[in-house]
């Protein structure tokens, strides 16, 4: 079997008496989209934060590319290739689409600003930024102010910004949230292609998107993974249906 790029082993995180992550193990393999689903409050965001480095687990380990990164900062993990898109947009709204992408590409150089050289005339940065915009279908909007983009286009731009860092994996926390059906369909198509670039750990409530995209699904309930399997396996799993899918209307 292919070696996982991301390997989470026995991660536990308690908030007082509550085990938000209760001995969680899961992995992410090259080329796949692994969806993490579960009801509100199940602990999905808490787990993503521990993988990205924003929150330290009480016990357990996070291995990335065979290396133990549990003690590394968010910035150090990003430098190693953990790409992330956020629930809350981190885009600069007054900048153009291209400027946002160039800022992302600049970060890929280690965050060293070279003030003596106007970045918007840096051919290598521009090429990297434009390639990322092209990949998410935003090439024709590069001169538009980000504030003028639709909600769905901003999500596409966030993916492009993450792409400029040439990530080894993507961590995505509810990328479909707030999108209409057209927007989520477009983003679904983009993520479908993106998995060939880098595997995606996808936290998502939109079950149409999850069922369309996921190679594997893990179901988190009360801080524990109750099942991992293919779309067909998860859809037919009696415990999953009882614990989660039956409650889908309430999510
Ligand atoms: N900093 C914190 N302090 C105390 N409790 C917390 C903290 N962060 C999260 N929790 C609790 O941990 C549990 C898991 O929360 P988390 O946000 O990870 O769930 P989630 O699955 O991402 O939910 P949602 O789908 O609503 O985003 C919840 O009961 C939440 O109230």
UniProtKB/TrEMBL annotation:
Q: Which GO terms describe its cellular component?
A: plasma membrane
| SMART domains, alphabetized | AAA
Ordered alphabetically, the record's keywords are: ATP-binding, Nucleotide-binding, Transport
**Molecular function per GO:** ATP binding; ATP hydrolysis activity
Q: Where is the ABC transporter domain?
A: 6-247
**A Pfam family for this UniProt protein?**
BCA_ABC_TP_C
The name of this protein is Amino acid/amide ABC transporter ATP-binding protein 1, HAAT family
